[in-house]
Automatic annotation (TrEMBL):
Zinc finger (dksA C4-type) in chain: 83-107
Record-annotated Zinc finger DksA/TraR C4-type domain positions: 78-111
Keywords linked to the UniProt accession: Metal-binding, Zinc, Zinc-finger
Disordered, as annotated region: 1-24
Membrane-spanning parts: none
Coiled coil: none
Protein name: TraR/DksA family transcriptional regulator
Single Gene Ontology MF annotation: zinc ion binding
One Pfam family of this chain: zf-dskA_traR
This protein's record includes keyword Zinc-finger: yes
Amino acid sequence: MTVNRAVNGAPGGYPPGGAQARQARELLEEERRTRLAQLAVLEHADDGAPDEASLARRESLQGTLEEIDAALARLDDGTYGLCEDCGEPLPEGRLEILPYARRCVQCQQRRR
């Protein structure tokens, strides 16, 4: 099942414990496991002093893990799939690309 199928069709968020929320949680947890594995490989490869690129990659992975954890918290409170700025449901496909997205594309672009 894709993220898109797991999360679309629940306008206004995902009721905690609902089937769509459970499916979205599974996908987010898989994303989390993948990022943790990437971080472990990176840390294992840094047997000496890590270089600047390695430090930047580690920081990026840790930031992504924080975003995934925040998305899991939004699932718990029923606000997953809603833009944090405008409150509208995230557009079709947005969570397919970025399952831990906080904002719709328009609101995200305004923040840059």
